[in-house]
Each structure stands twice: as C-alpha cells, then as structure tokens.
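Record 1 of the preview.
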Amino acid sequence: MGKKLTLKEYIFIGSMLFGLFFGAGNLIFPIQMGQLAGANMVSATFGLLITAVGLPFLGIIAMGVSRKESLYELSSKISPSYGVFYTIALYLTIGPFFAIPRTATVSFEAGFAPYLSPGSLQIVLLIFSALFFGASLWFSLRPTEILTWIGKVLNPIFLVSIAFLIVFVLVNPMGRVNDIPVQEIYQEGALFRGFLEGYNTMDALAALAFGIIIISTIKTLGVTDPKQIAKDTMIAGLFSTSLMAVIYASLVYIGATSQAIFEVSPNGGVALAVVSNHYFGNFGAIVLAIIITAACFKTAVGLITAISEMFVTLFPNKLTYNHFVYIFTGISFGIANLGLSQIISLSIPVLMFLYPLAITLILVAIMSPLFKDKAIVYQMTTVFTLPFALLDFIHNLPTGFKETLQLDKVSLWATETIPFFEIGMSWVIPALIGLVIGWILSKKK
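->
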C-alpha cells in the first residue's frame, strides 16, 4: 500500500489551497454584492457560491480525476495549439495582467488610501506597490517554502483577522437584512447576477492553475498512487472551499446589513474600510490593513509561483523559473499603478470570454472516465461554446471601444436575438448540444 496523508498534512494542504485562492477579489466583490443585493442577498449569495466555491472545487476535482498535471495538458485534449493559447490566456489573466496587480491595489485602496490625502495617492501607491512586490519577489524565488509560509504563517494571520471582524458584525449587526432596499441591478435575476459576480473572483480559473501546485505538494509528501493523489486532492479542495463558502456568506451579510447605516460604496474595498471603522474606529484601520494585505500577499506569491512554473513548462530551455518570476513581478508592479478601477474594468470582458470555456473544460474533464477521455467530446463541447464566449467578450468591452470598431451592432444583435445572452448565459445550451454530439461521436468511433 502507498502512503496516505495524515490529518495534519490534509489541514496544511487545504490551508495552503485556501491561501492561494482567497485574495483581493474574494474580499471586495462579495461585500459590495451584499450592498447591492440587500434583501435579495440569499439568492445572490447562492449564485455567487456556485461560481466562486462550487466551480473551483470542481476544477480541483477535474485535475485529480483526469490525472492531468497541468492546464496545458488538459486543454490540449482539444488541440495542442488551443492548449497553448488557452493556457497562456488564462495564466496571464490570473497572473500579471489582472489578478496579481489587483492584489496590490486592493491592499492599498482598501487598507491605506482612505486615510491619505487625494494628492498623495499616486506616489504612495508607487511606494507601497514597490514594497509589496519586492516582498512577493523574495518569496516567489523560494517556491519550496510556499507550503510553510502560506499554509502555516500567512493564512492563520488572515483567518484570525477576518474572523475578528465577522464575529463583531454577527454579535452586533448594523441592521436587518429584510429591511434593506434592493438596488435596481439585483431586483430581478439576483441568482444570475450573483453567478456572474463570482467570475470576478477568478477562482475557477485559478483552480485549473493551482492544481499542479497541489498535486506536486501531495507527491512531495510521499503519495505516489494516482488514485490516492486524486482522492487527496479532493479532500484538500473540500476543506478549502468549505472555508471559502463560510467567509463569502459572511461578507455578503456584512455588505447587506451595512446599508442600514451607510450608502452604497463605490467598491467593496471602500465598504470594508467603512464597516471596519464603524466597529473599531482608528483601530479598525490597523485590523483592515492586516486582513487585506495578508489575504492579497499570499495570493500574489502563489500566482507568481504558479505562472512562472507553467511558463517554464510551456517554453523549456528559453528562460529559467527565476527569470519568469522577475518578468511577471515587474509587469504586475507596472499595471498595479494604473489603479484598481481601471484594472477591474479591463478584466471583465476577458473573464466573460474565459469563464464559459473553463466551466465546460472542468465539467467534461470530470465526466471523462464515462467516455474514456476521448478528445472528440472535449473538441465538440468547446467548438459549440467558443463563438458565444467571444460574443460575451465583445458585449462587455468598453462602450467607446465598441463604437470605434463598430462592434456595438454585433452586441445589439446578440442581445435581441440569442436566448439568455443578456444575463451572460447564452453559451449554456450550445455547450450542452456540443457535449451530446461529442459523446455520440465518441461511441461511434
């Protein structure tokens, strides 16, 4: 019999996975969703948990069940060129283009910016992001220590800090949820709005990327049997995603009840700062800075490590792991200084394109033992999903950009013609059709 992990090892791996997942977006988006959803927060929360908790868990299971050791290996079932394209697109999105820069800007804008004068914001952001990414660089150059630092040090700091705030809110709530007004965007279809809000966390994309870190860590602990590795991956995933679900629901509740005494905030970072200040006064600034910075820093280190390891695999004999760490940390530092609002607005169309393709890839990978992992099922599902993901990308581009390229006509046509396009779900039926056709073809071959 091969080695099995101990309870202590399961907890450390689950803690590490939670630490990698739970970062910038995981704090700011649920709390703002709570503010907007108000009395409809239950439906919205359920939608959020599907994409922000359920899908990441399924992504972890997909990596274990399919026995693929990387996103590239999994997505190459569609074709090698598609595998390269999708892997690069996904890793750059959850890496230096959006998610990593966001870790620094969220830390700064929620934990520090409210207490600075407007004129000093840009220069202080520059200094803060330089220190933030300098520390991230140091840890990322020592990837063998990632389990220790994230699982044993940074994660407990974050959990204690966020638990402290959640307990205060639950003991002394700011208002009753049923009395909170619902903003227009959540008055109808709150479930679907919450579902799309979960895209912003990028966790389902991250699950496909972090799979290799979890599998590698399990192997270094002495587990060699593929079935046991798959089982251990699932157990670690269940631990981390359950913890995420509890914190998400708590943050949505905090956001909703905050409307009893505050107006809707421009973003979740501001809302978190206001709530923290309400309960703890000036001391709240310190608590919030610890929560935000610990959560974002551990995610930044995990992302830099994961993307650098993947690019070494994709482009062997080109650059070393350390070279990629320097490059991606430098790019992240530059983009972080554009500011949080700019980063979020630019990321939305990309996420609307990548997420349908990630969801279908995850679900087909989980079902792969049923059709003997035949490539035709992956291929047909993706071929039917891709055009609608591209339309979602076009629809969510900035208005001025769409008008310049005359893409607004395409967006209007899709809205008026394609079922469920307006709620971002137009790809679901085509994906199911592609899955069925692929499955039938797999039986005939």
